[in-house]
TrEMBL record:
Documented EC number(s): 4.2.1.96
Gene3D superfamilies for this protein: Transcriptional coactivator/pterin dehydratase
Molecular functions (GO terms): 4-alpha-hydroxytetrahydrobiopterin dehydratase activity
Name the UniProt record assigns to this protein: 4a-hydroxytetrahydrobiopterin dehydratase
CDD domains in the record: PCD_DCoH
Family: Belongs to the pterin-4-alpha-carbinolamine dehydratase family.
Provenance organism: Caldilineaceae bacterium SB0675_bin_29
GO biological processes: tetrahydrobiopterin biosynthetic process
UniProt entry keywords in alphabetical sequence: Lyase
Keyword Coiled coil applies: no
Source organism, top-level taxon: Bacteria
Reaction(s) catalysed by this chain's protein: (4aS,6R)-4a-hydroxy-L-erythro-5,6,7,8-tetrahydrobiopterin = (6R)-L-erythro-6,7-dihydrobiopterin + H2O
Length: 114
């Protein structure tokens, strides 16, 4: 079983790697505001695929224009490296191909509303 990370480790890791995510009740929390319901469903399906490939089962909340994700390793009772790895892959996939310097609203298909 993977070791649970303490709150300080998680906070430092998020600050360095995923500043748009946060720690909520021993879970990594991420939110993606989407353009519409179709994009919400596409993002949820992509996240589900990544989670299944990682043998992970996040809590995913779908709203008309957003997807919320909670990641925790239940066996460890909190956040582990497994959660960090999946959060990075989700962020990379859902926000792709937005690159540094791009401004939301300037691409032909503006999937996310960040």
């Amino acid at each position: 079983m993977e070791a649970k990370k303490d709150e300080k480790e998680v906070g430092g890791w998020l600050e360095d790697n995923l500043p748009s995510w946060e720690l909520r009740a021993d879970q990594l929390y991420g939110r993606f505001d989407t353009a519409n319901w179709r994009v919400t469903l596409m993002a949820a399906n992509a996240i589900g695929f990544l989670a299944e490939a990682a043998y992970h089962h996040p809590r995913i909340i779908l709203n008309y224009r957003s997807v919320e994700i909670y990641l925790t390793t239940h066996d460890a009772g909190g956040v582990t490296q497994k959660d960090f790895d999946l959060a990075l892959k989700i962020e990379e996939t859902v926000r792709w191909p937005l690159t540094e310097g791009d401004t939301p609203g300037t691409r032909p298909k503006d999937w996310l509303r960040s």
